[in-house]
Amino acid sequence: MASFASLRGAILQGPLLAPRLAVRRAPTARRRAVPAKISCIGWDPEGILGAPTGGHISRLEFRRRLERDSEAREAFERQVREEKERRRSEREARVIPDTDAGLVEFFLDTEAREIEVEIGRLRPRLNEGFFNHVSREIAQIKFAVTRTAEMEDRLIELEAMQKVLLEGVEAYDKLQNDLVTAKERLMKILQSSDRKATLLEMVERNELNISILTLLDENIASAKTSNQDEAVAFMENVRSSIVKYITV
């Protein structure tokens, strides 16, 4: 199942550590772990747009072309939808292992661009028991009397995966907590009988932020899709009030 872009693929070739005195083997090349940096899970988790690249002028030209050419814009949007659907289908086809050992191999073989999505999907499985399992396997290799080249490679892979998943879980949990808080604060604004007083109170408590505005924009977009004109008008009015007080 492993692929070029999998987490295993993030382990590059590098010089082998000096062998222990108890082990005699010829120097071999081993892969060096390159820990993946967890970015904001809320931003393009599908990875449709790919990693940031150079070519600022080229991107501007492409954007201008999309603005001028409706057919090009529609073709681009269709391509994005098709790519998103393809990745969704591939994700749903993956078999989720029942054991911690199987889950370790699952994440090692997952493409790097899918790691954030899988962390969100399998967050309940990424618990203390799972990370204890990973730590035990790492310790077994570290304290082995003799270590083979394969064991050295395995150690690098496990430590890199452990770091990526721990950072990913932390980022995911923070995002979820921020989302819950934003929902509660937005509901408070929407249900307030004195919106201005409520907003001023929230400003004093430093409770207004861009997360609330983003969540409101998502609700407005959803209401527009459902042709809920009255709800759209109400929420847009609320939005204009929030913008006056919000601190980005």
UniProtKB/TrEMBL annotation:
Organism superkingdom: Eukaryota
Coiled coil: 66-93
UniProt entry keywords in alphabetical sequence: Coiled coil
Protein name: Uncharacterized protein
